[in-house]
Amino acid sequence: GVTCASLVVATGGLSIPTLGATGFGYQIARQFGHTVLPTRAGLVPFTITDQLKALCTELSGTSVDCRVSCNGQAFRENILFTHRGLSGPAILQVSSFWQPGDSVAIDLLPDHDALGWLQQQQAERPNSELKTLLGEIFTKKMANLLAEQWFVSKPMKQYTPAELLALAEQLGNWQLVPAGTEGYRTAEVTLGGIDTREVSSKTMESLKSPGLYFVGEVLDVSGHLGGFNFQWAWASAYAAAQYV
User: Fold this and answer.
1) CA geometry: angle at 54 spanning 117 and 59, to 5°?
2) What share of the chain is helix, strand, coil (3-state, %, to 5)?
3) 19 with 187: CB under 8 angstroms?
4) Contact at 8 Å (CB) between 182 and 43?
5) pLDDT tens-digit map of 80-102
6) pTM to 2 decimal places
7) Rounded average pLDDT over 209-234
8) Residues 145-175: pLDDT tens digits?
């Protein structure tokens, strides 16, 4: 046994086990009667296993500015196609709000109303092929692949209003259901953790066991991408250090 006047638990969460991440902090918390809320990977890439897998693999390394939404949360950032599925800032952000089985909506034309843009192209450039127009927005390879896999590419004047509507829905509201995430192996944060209601927000001290402190990601606190989780770790550690 170890006896000490104060104990600060700063063990982090379960993300990136190759760096030594374990659930040790949660074990300590439970030992002292704390509630540990369910944990899962956050800020993490999606894996795709259905017919979209071939598209993701073909476009691996391609980055596209998109608006990605799920469960009422939306992020305007890049998405990145990978050999395993989808990554990039917008995907990492929305992954924290995704639950298995949920659909994710991707707007590939975030600067345009998709239907309005297509109608405008049809009116102004009726003889241009769809894949040519898409090639001015995406990489030529991506434009060709989308045209091959999603649409029949033909001159814009040949599309009916119903076909244009279907094109707009696919480009502006692409719905996909990820198979899962890459998990803790590559997750940037762990969602869930020690219930913050049982810890002082001022001192980070346990409300159940005086002299016991919890800081950083072991607590049920997680922020957006961009350094917020580092900031939380440092700020909570500084708060505890004032009182230990």
Assistant:
1) 55
2) 35, 25, 40
3) no
4) no
5) 999 999 999 999 999 999 999 99
6) 0.92
7) 97
8) 998 888 889 999 999 999 999 999 999 999 9
Dist CA 99 CA 229 (whole Å): 21
Structure tokens at 115: 């239907």
- N-to-C CA span, the chain: 21
Alpha-carbon 135 to chain mean position: 27
Residue 6 tokens read as 């104060």
CA-derived radius of gyration, the chain: 23
The DSSP letter of residue 160 is -
Q: Beta strands 7-9 and 212-214: pairing type?
A: parallel
- Looking from the CA of 147 toward its CB, the CA atoms found within 13 Å total 18
- Give the length of the chain: 244
**What would the two tokens of residue 220 be?**
């049920």
d(CA 112, CA 130) in angstroms, rounded, equals 16
Q: How far is C-alpha 5 from the geometric centre of its chain's CA atoms?
A: 41
Structure token pair of residue 158:
């040949």
